[in-house]
Amino acid sequence: MDQASVEYLLTTTRSVRRRLDLARPVERAVVLDCLRLAIQAPTGSNRQGWRWLVIDDPEQRRALAEIYRTAAVPSFTAMLERTPADAVERRRPYEGALYLAEVLDQVPVLVIACIEGRVDTPATYERAAALYGSVLPAVWSFMLALRARGLGSTLTTAHLRREAEVAQLLGIPDSFTQVALLPVAYTIGTEFKAARRAPVETVTYVNHWGQQP
């Protein structure tokens, strides 16, 4: 295994919004190839309850994007308005999110990750952790597979404020939980940098909370 290549992939797979190439088509076969890799991810009790909804029909994308805007734009706008104009780094995610909402219908493919089961009532910490833990590793693997092929995405959840509307539009059964919406497109350029992060020693404890390495 080429450790350098693996580490490069892991450290440069970014949330891509503004650099999604809206003009270049994405072949359905490429998305399926990435999903084929994604479902190799671990899943609780090996139940493999995930389902993946690939939306590449323009009318369906347009309808889904409209629901997404209704759910996302007011909250992202409010967050941006509360953020000082000179706080550039804090404003950037909201600006990117608003841009994505604006162009979502133009993104070539939208993928919704679902998992069988619900934690609505009664919800427990264990049940919720097990449910989401059974699909989110596959979502990340999907994003890594996209990155390796020159495509990008970002994990979005704003549509969940209108989960029932999305389910009705797409025919998602009530017994499944929508976990993420992932816009999929080739990226404009392929060079991405590692993100700025706090030193790992400041966010890692050993043997007891607060005890740093």
What does this structure look like?
The protein has 213 residues and is of the alpha+beta class. It has a single domain (3-202), classed as NADH Oxidase, CATH 3.40.109.10. The chain is 43% helix and 13% strand. It contains 7 helices and 4 strands. The chain has helices spanning 3-12, 28-38, 58-82, 88-103, 125-133, 136-148, 163-170; strands spanning 50-55, 109-116, 151-152, 176-186. A 4-stranded antiparallel sheet has the order 1-2-4-3. Helix 2 packs across helix 6. It is globular and about 55 Å long. The two termini are 29 Å apart. The model has no long low-confidence stretch (mean pLDDT 95).
List keywords for this structure.
43% helix; single chain; four-stranded antiparallel sheet; 7 helices; 13% strand; 213 residues; NADH Oxidase
Average pLDDT, to the nearest integer? Answer: 95
Summed up, the domain count is: 1
Instruction: Indicate the CATH class.
Output: Alpha Beta
Strand order of the largest sheet: 1-2-4-3
Instruction: Tell me the total number of β-strands.
Output: 4
What would you give as the CATH superfamily? NADH Oxidase
Helical residues, percent = 40-55%
CATH level 3 topology: NADH Oxidase
Characterize the biggest β-sheet: 4 strands, antiparallel
Approximate shape = globular
| Span of the ends, CA to CA | 29 Å
Q: What is the string of helix and strand elements? A: HHEHHEHHEHE
The radius of gyration is 18 Å
- Which CATH architecture? 3-Layer(aba) Sandwich
What structural class do you assign from the helix and strand content?
alpha+beta
Beta-strand portion reads 5-15%
Number of helices: 7
